[in-house]
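lol so apparently i was supposed to do this last week
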Amino acid sequence: MEFNWPLINDNVSATDRQVLSDFILSGERLTNGPKVKEFENIWSDWLGTKHSVMVNSGASANYISIAIAKEVMGISEVIVPPLGLVSDLASIAQLGMKPVIVDIDMKNLAITAENIKNAITPNTKAIVLIHCLGFNGISDEIIKIAKDNNIMLIEDCCESHGATYKGQRIGTFGDISLFSFYFGHHITTVEGGIICTDNEKLYNLAKLFRSHGMTREASPEVQEYYQTNFPELNPLFTFAVAGFNMRSTEINAVLGIEQMKRLDYNIAKRTENLNTWLLSLNASKFYLDFDVEGSSNFALPLVLKEPSKEQLKAVCDILNEEKVEYRLGTAGGGNQALQPYLKFYNHKVEGDLPNTNYIHHYALYIGNHTELTSSQITNLCSKLNTI
Ligand SMILES: Cc1ncc(COP(=O)(O)O)c(C=O)c1O
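anyway here it is w/ pyridoxal-5'-phosphate bound
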């Protein structure tokens, strides 16, 4: 029997839809307002940061975090891994910063402290650390490197809601962190994202960049500063930074508030699925030495032990036959440094990126759904182990 196992399940429940229709029919305003603020507060409490700013996608959160880094640190080099989403690199390139691309570690698919250290120049002002496919990528060493070198640390947690390092949620270690709520992630607002920080100044900047750069979005102190220093400008139309419109609607926030009720369950179930997955695959055929401590995966990674095109074809044949949807190269399609758009922008690739290229050519991922049973997972693993 085929599995019919999609990459992403529609995790908007009947109750979610009822809550959404009740809200829409209530006649409340639908543009960014009190529900967005309520969701931001719930998210900050859950994560353990002082402030959160909800936006319309994880990619928007990428752009705003880089815009903030540019505003605070100036035009500079930004160290970034090649395994992530296009927006991780494109935001840096498009905002006139220079992506410096360094290789990842096989055990957690994140950039290593050593690779970061080797890539630092006097112009390095930010690091985008991507917690890939739910694995924790942070370490004391990375935090220290950022601190010692006065480098802004941005944690991209779009694939890793609820992952932890030493028991503390990722997204609370960097100067800024960001999450995606695209459908199929740990929770969804259909489209949506959020930027989190403990820093008041960065929080104000996130609100400014989200909403055209308008000072009326920022704190009373920031508003007063601009009113005093720019008296000829209308306070309602004073633009402190060259901002975007990346606001969320109330509708997305209402869904987010409802979905938060099952976030911890989703994380626990998906972690259980990952453990079953890794225990059921044959270690002589698949790379299984991941550092799973504190992980919170939303996709199940499959990495060949040996660089064999034949084995990869055999894996794909099984998945196609069983109707299990997959993505080659894992996150974002693999090595972003190979993508055509980059050649239009000033960037630097550090070394040959052997680990990223291995993942690009010999790895894929499939969906990790809360509805999966352990026998579905073990049955699929048995078939995959036959390659
Ligand atoms: C690592 C990473 N960064 C950024 C994003 C962008 O998020 P979104 O799809 O909400 O724009 C994603 C998407 O899932 C992602 O995986």
